[in-house]
Amino acid sequence: MTGTHRRFTPLQRLLHWLMAAAILAMLFIGVGMVSTVTPKYLALVSLHKPLGIAILVLALIRLALRLSHGAPALPADLPEPMKLAAVLSHWALYALMIGMPLLGWGMLSAASYPVVLAGGIHLPSILPPSDRLHTLLWDAHYFLAFAFFALILLHVAAALFHALVRRDGVFEAMAPTPTRDEAAPAE
Ligand code: HEM
Ligand code: HEM
């Protein structure tokens, strides 16, 4: 759904920026985890799992908001291939924000490892134990992490292109700051 409003709602913007920081942190925590054999591994992994599950919950909330509230229309003069690239890349980002945590949870379930959150909450296993499945999901989590990073770089490049070159309001639609209308008290 695409609306006629000019900006994403304040809640959509808050979630976007909060999750951008969390996802970037997750990519670096993940790479840190697999590049160390010191006890730091345990500290990193016990941060990686709950933060990843929090991202899954927030992404589902965000998807529901997106489906119910829609998004501001892209500028009418934006070439069709760029509109298509924006739409496809945004849905791919949603798929990765939901798919990556599910793959992480799934691969640990297949290896019979517990997924423990803050306060000792154990998440149920979502897959039966299977070495083959574990390897398959591990590979998918690994390769999709690189795809996620590459897509984020493209996304940031596109955002900067809109903000600095086209100056067409697309960046402002997601900017974390309130606009003058939002900041000014209602008359
Ligand atoms: C947005 C969410 C997530 C992102 C971006 C992410 C990213 C990553 C990255 C970049 C790696 C390192 C891959 C490599 O270079 O080898 C990794 C490894 C790992 N991830 Fe995630 N991850 C996410 C969610 C999760 C969740 C929710 C879990 C579990 C509940 C999880 C469990 C793991 C485990 C266990 C490893 C390490 C595997 C090993 O030590 O061999 N991840 N993740
Ligand atoms: C981990 C990092 C990020 C992820 C996963 C992400 C994800 C997304 C998604 C899924 C959308 C589409 C929103 C929707 O249609 O519901 C979006 C929009 C947007 N993002 Fe990001 N984002 C990230 C980082 C950034 C950064 C760093 C910037 C700026 C430099 C940025 C700027 C924007 C802008 C301007 C839009 C609005 C595009 C439009 O109106 O169509 N994002 N982002």
Automatic annotation (TrEMBL):
Q: Which GO molecular function, any one, fits this protein according to its record? A: metal ion binding
Keyword check for Transcription, yes or no. no
Can the keyword Membrane be found in this entry's annotation?
Answer: yes
Where does the record say this protein resides? Cell membrane
Domain Cytochrome b561 bacterial/Ni-hydrogenase span(s) in chain numbering: 7-175
TM ranges are 14-35, 41-65, 86-108, 142-165
Q: Which UniProt keywords apply?
A: Cell membrane, Electron transport, Heme, Iron, Membrane, Metal-binding, Transmembrane, Transmembrane helix, Transport
Q: Which GO terms describe its biological process?
A: respiratory electron transport chain
Q: What is this protein called?
A: Cytochrome b
